[in-house]
Design a protein that fits this description.
single chain; about 70 residues
Length: about 70
Amino acid sequence: MAFYRKNIGSLHQVVRVVIGAVTAVAALVWLTAPASYLGVVAGVGLALSGLLGYCPMCAAAGVGRQR
């Protein structure tokens, strides 16, 4: 039994993982210390929501896939 219900589709998940990974790597490569940490956290959070298939902001807004 899952603790959450997936609210984003397969394509959306793949896009989130790719963009999250690119954001995290780009932040490490191009930004300086304080900004790079925030960029990495944002990228990892985006990739993690893609891996899990659940977006808390989409759930709060009532946007999601219907079952």
